[in-house]
Amino acid sequence: MSAASGRTRFGASGVVFAVAVLLGLLAAVGGLLYSTGRRLLVDVERTERHAEVEAAAASLAEPIELAERLVRTLAEADALERLTRDGVSSADASAHYRQLDAILSELTREEAVLRLEVLSLGFDPPLCGFSREPGDPALDLLEPPGKSSAFQAKASAGSPRQLLVSLVGKVDAPRVAAAWRTGRGWLVYAEVDARRPLERCAQQGGGGTWALASQGAVRWPRGASAPFDREGGQAGTRVLAGEILSQALVTRAGGGWQLLVRVPQSSGFSLETRLTLSAAAMMALVVIGLGIYALRVTNLQTSLDQSERQETELQGTFDAITDPLLVLDRELKVVRTNRVAAEDHGRAARGDDYAQVLVRRGLVDPGAFLEETSQVVSGGLPRHTELVLADPAGERVLLVAQYPVFAADLTVSGVVEHARDVTQTRRLQSQLVQSEKLSTLGEMAAGIAHEVNNPIAVISMFAQLLREELDDLDGGSGALEKVELIEEQAASVGEIVKGLLRFARKSEGVKVRFDARGVPERALALLSHQKLLRDVTLIKEPDASFGALVKVLGDEGQLAQVVLNLIVNACHAMEGKGELTIGVSRGTLSEPPAGIAFGTPDETPARVRLSVGDTGAGIEPAALERIFEPFFTTKPTGEGTGLGLSVGFAIIREHGGCIFVETAPGEGTTFVLDLPDGAAPLADSPSEGETDAQAPSSSEGAAEKGDA
C-alpha cells in the first residue's frame, strides 16, 4: 500500500466527513425553519382570529349600547317625571304627553329600534310607546293586554334604577331587550334588532361552536352550551390541542357579556410552502459557506471598529487634559497632540518638528533644549525642567515634564511631554515673599518701637526734672522754654511709638464694645507724622445725632487696620493731592448706602457706617469686580501686594458687616464699612470674647511706655 493511496483514502474520508457535517447542518437548519415557520403561522392565525372575534363583539355591542341609551334617555325625561306627580292639571298633562311624543320620535329614528314603551309596574296599558311592527298599535303593545314577558317581570321585581339587558325573540329574529325601573313606579322597556350582529358572530363559529354568555350562562343561541370553560372572564385567544379558543368582551352591562368562539386550527404547510422550505434548506448550504466568509470579514471589521474606538477614546483622554500634551517619536517629530497644544500653546500638529513647536511657543534658540530632549530618548530617563519663554505681556514660565515611551523590546520609541504654565504661580510666590518681607519688617518695627520707648521715657522723665529745677532759678526762662520743647517732642515721639505698638499688637479675637468714632482717629494718628497726608485736605463728617457714643461690638485694632488701609489707598489714588473725607454715621438695614455691596450683612436692623472717600481717579468697572480678590492690585509692580483690601474684607465679614463701594472713573471713590450697631446693653454675665471696652490699666500704660 503506497503513501498516495493512503492520502487518497484520507481525502475520501475527509470528503465524506464534510458531506456528513453539511447534511447534519442542513437537517438542523431545515428543522429550525420548519418549527419556526409553523410557530409563525400559528401566531398569525391566532392573531387574525382574535381580531375577527373582537370585531364581531364590537358589532354586537352596538345594539346593546343603543338599547341602554334609549331606556336611560326616556327614564330621565323631565316630562315623564312631571306626569307621575300628584295634582297635574289636564293642560299640563297634555303638554307633557306632547313632550314624550317628541322624545319618542327622536329616539326611534334609527331603523334598528323595534320597540320603546313606558309601562306601569301593574302592567296596565302603556303610558306611551312605539312599535315598528305592522298593525301593532302604539298604545297597546302587550299581547295579550295586561300580561308581561319573563324579562319584563324580572325587571319590574328588581331594584329601582337598575338596568337589565337580555336577548329575546325568535331564533330568526333576535332582539336586544333593555329595561329600567324608575323610582316613580314606571318600567321603561326597549327592543333593538340584533339579527345582523348575531349572524356575524355565527360566521365566526363556522366550522366550530360559538355562544354569547353572561353571568356564567349562555344567552344565545338558545339551548346551547359554552364552547369552553372561561378563564376568569379575561379576553384573549389561545391555541389548545389543535383548536383556537377566542374570548372577547361585548359589554360590561348586565353582569358582563362575552363572545366565546371555538374553531379548529387550520394552519398547516401547503405544497408551495413545503417546496419553499426545501429550497431554503438547499440554500442553507450556500449560506453556510458564505457565512464563514462573512464571519471572517466581520471579525476584521470589528477589529477595525475597536481600534477606531480606542483611538477616539485615547484622543478624548488627551483632549480632556487642560495642559499642553505632546507625543514625539525618536526623531522628535510630533505624532500626537491634545487640543490645548494644537490650538493655544505652540499650535503643534502631527508631523511637525519639535524645534518648530518650541519656536512657536516663544523659545528663541531651541538648540540646547532639543539636545536635552534627545538625551531622554537615548538615556531612557525622565526629565523635569523649567522653560522660560518670551511673551509680549512678559516672560512666561512652563514647567516641562518629559517621559520616555518604551517599546515591547524595552527600547525608547518616543517621548511624552507635559507642559504646565506656572507663570501666575511664580508671580504669586513672589508676591507672597514680598508680603512675608513686609510682615517681618513690621515685626522689626514693633521691636524697634519697644526699644525706642525706653530711652524716650528716660528723656521725658529727665526733661521734667530739669524743668522743675529751672523753675527754681531766676532768669532761666529761655532755658525753660527749651526744656519744655524737649519734653513736648519726647511726648510726641512717645505717642507715635504708642500708636505703632497698638497697631502692631496681634489681635486675640476678643470683641468689645467701643466708640466707633475712635477708629478713624486711631488710624489718622499713625499717619499724622507722614508725608502722605501733607498736601491732602482732610474733611470729617460726624453726625449730630450720635449722642455720647456710637458703639460697635468688635476688635478696634482690626477695624483701625481696615480704615488705615483705605486711607492709604485713597492717598495713593489722589497722588497725594485732593480731598479725603472720613465720616461716621448711623443707618438702617432697610436703607443701604449708595454703591455696590460686597458681602452680606447680618440681620441687625440698626447699622453703624464708617466711610472713606477720595477725589482720585476712581476704579474702572473691570477692576471693580476683582478689588477684593487676594493678590489683585492695580498698582505698579513692587508698590502693592494686593492683600490689603482682601484682608480688610475678611475682617468686615467677621464683624457681621459688608462693604459698599461707590465709584466712577475720574470722579473718585467712596468705601462704606456697614457694621451692626453695638449699642444694645450687655447681658448680666458677658460671654467669653465679648466685653465692654475699659480704660487701659496702669500696667498696660506702663507697657506702652516701654515696659519700664
Question: What is the topological layout?
Answer:
Blueprint: H1 3-75, H2 78-83, H3 90-107, E1 113-120, E2 128-131, H4 150-157, E3 163-170, E4 173-181, E5 186-193, H5 195-204, E6 209-214, E7 217-220, E8 236-240, E9 243-251, E10 257-264, H6 271-320, E11 325-329, E12 334-337, H7 339-343, H8 354-361, H9 367-379, E13 383-389, E14 396-406, E15 412-421, H10 423-472, H11 477-504, E16 511-515, H12 518-527, E17 536-541, E18 551-554, H13 556-573, E19 578-588, E20 596-598, E21 606-614, H14 621-624, H15 644-654, E22 658-664, E23 668-676, E24 690-692, H16 698-704
Parallel strand pairs: 16-24, 17-19
Antiparallel strand pairs: 1-2, 1-5, 3-4, 4-5, 6-7, 6-10, 8-9, 9-10, 11-12, 11-15, 13-14, 14-15, 16-18, 19-21, 20-22, 21-23, 22-23
Structural description of this entry:
α10 (423-472) runs antiparallel to α11 (477-504) and α12 (518-527) packs across α13 (556-573). The chain folds into four domains: 50-264, Beta-Lactamase; 321-421, 2-Layer Sandwich (Beta-Lactamase), CATH 3.30.450.20; 428-488; 510-704, 2-Layer Sandwich (Heat Shock Protein 90), CATH 3.30.565. The termini are far apart. It is 45% helix and 23% strand. The protein is elongated and about 160 Å long. The model is unreliable at 1-5, 136-146, 682-690 and 694-708 (pLDDT under 50). The chain contains 16 helices and 24 strands. The protein is α+β, with helices and mostly antiparallel strands and 708 residues long. A six-stranded mixed β-sheet has the order 17-19-21-23-22-20. The protein has a five-stranded antiparallel β-sheet with strand order 2-1-5-4-3, with helices on both faces.
